[in-house]
Please model this.
Amino acid sequence: MRLRGRLWRIASVLAALAALALVFLAYAQPSLMQQLAEQVWACF
Model:
């Protein structure tokens, strides 16, 4: 049971790091950020 908990924790950390990497890559593309900002602005 202890091994399963450790594997779950490692998998969770890896998933969080992958999500952070995807967010960083998204912010590295100015055109994507501009498009998202325009879509948010269109809601108001």
Q: What stands out?
A: Residues 2-42 form one domain. The chain has a mean pLDDT of 91. The chain has two helices and no strands.
